[in-house]
Every structure is written in C-alpha cells, then in structure tokens.
Design goal:
Number of strands: 4
Radius of gyration: 14 Å
Order of helices and strands: EEHHEHHE
Shape: globular
Helix content: 25-40%
Structural class: alpha+beta
C-alpha cells in the first residue's frame, strides 16, 4: 500500500487559489499520459499542461494511496457512460460550457471510492 499522510499541497500536487477557497490540481506527466490512454489520443493532442481548479485539495485513496486527479474524473466519466471521449476532449481543450456538479469519484488505479464530493470549478490556470 502506498498510503501517505502527507497532503497533496505539501507534496506539490495542488496549490490553494482564490484565498484558499479552491485548489489548483497541478497536472502531472503520469496523469496526462493516463488521460491520453483513456481517451485513445496522443497526449500532445490534448493541449493541456497546467491544472484544473477544484473545490478541494486532492484526496489520497484509502486503499492504494493514489491522489485524486483529473485522470480519475476522466476515468469515471467514461466508465459510467456519462460522457463520450469526444465530449471530454472538447472540455479538456476548451473548458466546460456549464457549471459542473459535485461528483463522487472512484480511484482509477484500484477502484476504491475517494472520500467526499469533488467539483471542477470550470477554469484552467
């Protein structure tokens, strides 16, 4: 098990923004590669490399220790049939067209549910 008690902020995976009301989840190379694999595209075609603004800090999976990430949101949307790959690619490249509701997300590495609700604030930084 890779579980850690360190926060994603302390590990440099997210930074508080807007006076701490939101967190910018910094996109890692591993996440980008996983997203590209999930969407069956080359990572350079996604043209994303910054990070997405979320309502909370990343959470560590209680089972495997992976921190929640954009790849988990993509994995969940595809696995549950909520969005098509083309829709997700458009959102990744152009941002969401509407406010995103909160979601419970499942770890894309081991399948464990992350604790709490996650909401994409709808902007890139």
């Amino acid at each position: 098990m890779e579980h850690t008690d360190a926060s994603s902020t302390a590990l440099g995976l997210s930074v508080p923004v807007f006076d701490g009301a939101y967190h910018k989840w910094l996109l890692t190379g591993e996440e980008l590669a996983h997203i590209a694999e999930l969407l069956n595209v080359d990572s350079s075609a996604l043209n994303i490399n910054e990070g997405n603004i979320m309502n909370r800090e990343r959470a560590a999976c209680n089972s495997c220790g992976k921190f929640s990430g954009l790849d988990d949101l993509v994995h969940n949307a595809l696995a549950r049939g909520i969005h098509t790959p083309n829709f997700i690619i458009d959102v990744l490249q152009n941002g969401p067209q509407n406010q995103s509701p909160g979601h419970e997300i499942q770890c894309s590495k081991c399948g464990e549910m992350f604790y709490g609700s996650f909401r994409w604030a709808g902007r890139w930084m």
